[in-house]
Write a structure and sequence with these properties.
Layout: H1 2-5, E1 9-14, H2 19-22, E2 28-32, H3 33-36, E3 51-54, H4 57-63, H5 72-85, E4 91-92, H6 101-107, H7 111-131, E5 143-144, H8 149-161, H9 166-169, E6 173-175, H10 185-195, E7 201-203, H11 208-214, E8 220-223, H12 225-231, H13 249-263, H14 271-274, E9 280-284, E10 295-301, H15 302-309, H16 313-320, E11 331-333, E12 342-346, H17 347-360, E13 375-376, H18 378-385, H19 389-393, H20 396-402, E14 405-408, E15 411-415, H21 416-423, H22 439-443
Parallel strand pairs: 1-2, 1-8, 2-3, 3-4, 5-6, 6-7, 7-8
Antiparallel strand pairs: 9-10, 10-12, 11-12, 13-15, 14-15
């Protein structure tokens, strides 16, 4: 299998084109077409620079109501320009159609339609590269899109139906719609299953937490998480030219060292240390098996189940286990070494209880106040919604990602409708909008089987 043969190549995400010149040559860079396209003059990268291009597809679909403003022809011309003026592109992402519910709500389309458009765009870009007479092979690599495991497998089949041989012809095969839920067991299973098809998988936006959990299934990954952390980090590099580290190469390279350290961990060969264990199939009798005869049920610890459903284990233990009707444990599982055994629960009972509880405790939805297209500060939007300012500003990092915004002097103004849409995507108590940024998960990183990685 290719993931057993190749070391993971991690691409440091950057929005500074000068880094193509100034970053160390042993650092692979991932830079967006949207950054480069507006430059009249591009930097000429030194010999040996390894870089890849992000198409900016998520940003375009997010900002422009679920449609692309950049045509395939324009994108191919831009790639040919980068390849010529900057230097050889290692590879480029297609203009794929993400399958996050947030994006589906904007387009009004189905997962299947997004997959169809993703595959057809890849085929179109490949043909356009040849038609325009650009030198060398087309740098665009395929991306598998989906939301659930079966979706991704169907997308693989769709590529095959178009004559695209993912395992044989491409050094990179991206896996989309994963970066905002990378802390979940579901994503680990998706990567594991696709890797067993002998695909050279690239994980988009994979942070340290994701690398620890399922990095051994990947041949490459990228992230710009350092910049989001840097926004809240006062200048520590000694520079007098910036207030925080959001654009600091020194800060980014220090963060990258942590990534390489995680990627080099030999424990990756020991699946149970980094991935949520498979639910234990246990023989139960009588009523415990759901019938009067022997049957098989799936038993899980609270840590395993919390990771599966995308919740913080601490929130489950502290707030849900005492709620009315929460299922009782069925038995215990010994810990490795000494310590109190883990309680085990029947997974189907937990799932059924959570579904009913979530229905009853769904978070209130907000109505868009006034013109959804008007740009306002977060404080102004909070005031119009009748809530405390922190109710909105606590999601600033996500709003910077998902809501259209513009800076006017020292203040940032956001498109009101986008802000309300993000707020309405809240999952309810115990679930962070961005699981990878959930401090409760970080605190619980080593707290029992199935605890999410930090």
């Amino acid at each position: 299998m290719i993931y057993e043969e190749e070391e993971l190549n991690f691409y440091l995400g950057t929005h500074r084109e000068r880094w193509l010149i100034t970053a160390p040559l042993d650092v692979s860079l991932f830079i967006s077409h949207r950054v480069l396209a507006r430059r009249a003059t591009l930097p000429r990268a030194p010999l040996g620079r390894h870089y890849a291009i992000d198409s900016g597809a998520f940003t375009e679909l997010s900002l422009y109501g679920g449609e692309f403003r950049t045509s395939p022809e324009e994108y191919v011309r831009a790639l040919a320009r980068y390849d010529d003026e900057i230097g050889d592109i290692a590879w480029a992402a297609p203009q794929d159609w993400m399958c996050e519910p947030f994006i589906l709500a904007k387009t009004g389309l189905t997962v299947a339609e997004h997959q169809r458009r993703t595959v057809e765009n890849f085929v179109t870009l490949t043909a356009l590269w040849e038609e325009q007479g650009a030198p060398g092979d087309c740098p665009v690599m395929p991306v598998i899109q989906g939301w659930q495991l079966d979706d991704y497998l169907r997308c693989v089949e769709l590529y095959e139906q178009h004559g695209v041989r993912l395992a044989k012809d491409y050094p990179v095969v991206g896996v989309g719609s994963v970066c905002r839920r990378q802390g979940t067991a579901e994503i680990g299973e998706i990567f594991r299953t696709l890797a067993r098809l002998d695909l050279p998988l690239h994980g988009f936006g994979v942070k340290i937490a994701g690398l620890r959990q399922y990095g051994r299934w990947l041949t490459s990954a990228d992230s710009m998480a350092w910049s989001f952390q840097g926004r809240r980090t006062p200048t520590a590099c000694g520079s007098s030219t910036h207030k925080n580290e959001a654009n600091c190469q020194s800060f980014a390279l220090t963060w990258l060292q942590r990534v390489w350290k995680a990627a080099a961990r030999p424990q990756w060969d020991q699946r149970d240390l980094f991935e949520v264990p498979e639910p234990v199939e246990t023989e139960l009798y009588g009523a415990a098996a759901g019938s009067g005869t022997m049957g098989l049920v799936s038993l899980v610890t609270l840590g395993e189940w919390a990771a599966k459903v995308g919740r913080a284990e601490t929130a489950v233990r502290n707030h849900l286990t005492d709620a009315p009707g929460f299922p009782a444990p069925k038995g215990t599982r010994p810990r490795e070494g000494s310590g109190t055994p883990y309680e085990e629960y029947e997974e189907s009972e937990l799932d059924a209880w959570l579904k009913a509880w979530e229905t009853k405790h769904a978070p209130a939805r907000y109505e868009v106040p006034g013109d959804p297209g008007e740009y306002r500060t977060l404080g102004a939007i909070a005031k119009l919604l009748g809530v405390d300012g922190k109710t909105v500003t606590q999601y600033r990092a996500l709003l910077d990602q998902h809501a259209a915004h513009e800076d006017r002097g020292a203040r940032r103004f956001y498109r009101t409708g986008d802000v309300v849409e993000v707020l309405n995507s809240r999952k309810g108590f115990g679930v962070a909008l961005d699981p990878a940024r959930d401090r409760r998960r970080t605190a619980a990183a080593d707290d029992g089987p199935g605890a999410p990685s930090a």
